[in-house]
Design brief:
It comes from Rhizobium glycinendophyticum. The protein is globular and about 70 Å long. Strands 4-3-9-7-8 form a five-stranded parallel sheet, with helices on both faces. The protein has a five-stranded antiparallel sheet with strand order 11-12-17-14-15, with no helix packed on it. It has two domains: 81-339, no CATH class; 351-453, Jelly Rolls (Sandwich), CATH 2.60.120.1380. Strand 1 and strand 2 form a beta hairpin. 28% of the residues lie in helices and 19% in strands. It is of the alpha+beta class.
Amino acid sequence: MTRTRKNAYLFGTALSVLSLGMSIDAFAASLETTGKEAGTVESGFGCSGLEDVSELQMIEGKDGMFFRILADMRLQHAFTDQTVDHLAAMAKALEKSGTTLIYVPLPTKSQVLPELVPARASLYGFDANIAAEIYDDVVRRLEAKGVASVDIATPMRQNNKNQFGEYAFFQADFHWTAHGAGIAAKAIADKMKALPAYEGIKPVGFTMQEIKPEPEFSSMRELLQKHCISNVPTVTAHAYEAVREEASADAGSMDIFGGGDEATIALIGTSYSDKPISNFAGYLEHWTGIPVDNYSISGGNQFGSILSYITSREFQEQRPRFMIWENPIYNNLGQYGAAPWAEIVAASLGDCGKTLDVKPVDEKTVAGDLSSLKLSGDDVLLADIGSDVSRNVTFTFTGADGTVRTRSMERGDRLRATGRYFLSLGGIPADAFGKVSVSFDAPVGDTTALSVCKTKTGEQS
């Protein structure tokens, strides 16, 4: 959602200067001189204390480009071999039902614009060559495990500024511009067209037409401006929309309105994919020739959009030909352990053939018997309330010896409420699988169901 905010900041020091008849420009020049004498870095906007801002530590680079110290300067990104294995399992599970996963690690501003990083960044350990190699290593390891992955950092570096002088990223914000999104989308399209899943697709034409950009609110710029005297660059740039050309008479089997052998792309991502001013989804349509359904979520962190979409009935009933998952490289996909991955892989596979007989316990609870099933830590229990009204669920397992164990799951406000929860049974002792009751935060009904799902692609229900 795009918001517009107007804020005026009046600093006591600047007010004092004006009362003495000194101009802002002269005052800024005096600060620069003082800074040089003290051995500090010169600011083009009279900024000070950026590296000590508690909410978001920043550093000023060249040509008005600002970088986040924690996200943009660091060289260590938690992309472990275990994460690669999880993505490989997800890709394999999706492929079983005809969906091809394309994972896109989104580079940082410093990996795309190293020439604008200030020399002072070396004090934080930044090295441009190492930063580039770390990104390349992630793509190589994914490809080696059979996950289609795209290097978008290299083409963005090679074409990081358009004819209007706009960079691939906004100067005072960490998101990419339409120029950066377009370069990335073309690289993804080139990769996609080389995959077997693209064979036989007759692309639909999408033309990019310039539109007037809406004012863009940026929390980073708002915070940044509080520590600068002059106005820092605004978060605006040339913007475009994708306009579908009329389908040709020989469009073949591809029906963009649904039905037939429709080819679609499901875009899963973060705020980078959700911003209208950048229109990443539109550029994907333009370069791939395939309609895009955008399920990205701003503020959903690394798993918000994927869990919202992949657990939905919509995904289970009509799977896309391609799933593009965009995630900033600094997002830690191992932060919450194996639980999110068990849910993602089980939902990707959709092998939930064992349905339990359940009985209502009260208005919001159903119960079932697990004692006759041979369950293991590789299994996943799917609790489906039957509608999209639920955000919370609690599983209560009662073993033969009377021991009670509970597990809870929650969909935050930024996530989509699907009413479907895939609980991994990993870590729960086998003797706990006696009886199970499942309590939702909404009334259950005739369509409420419990099922056992597999996570191994070689298994059959």
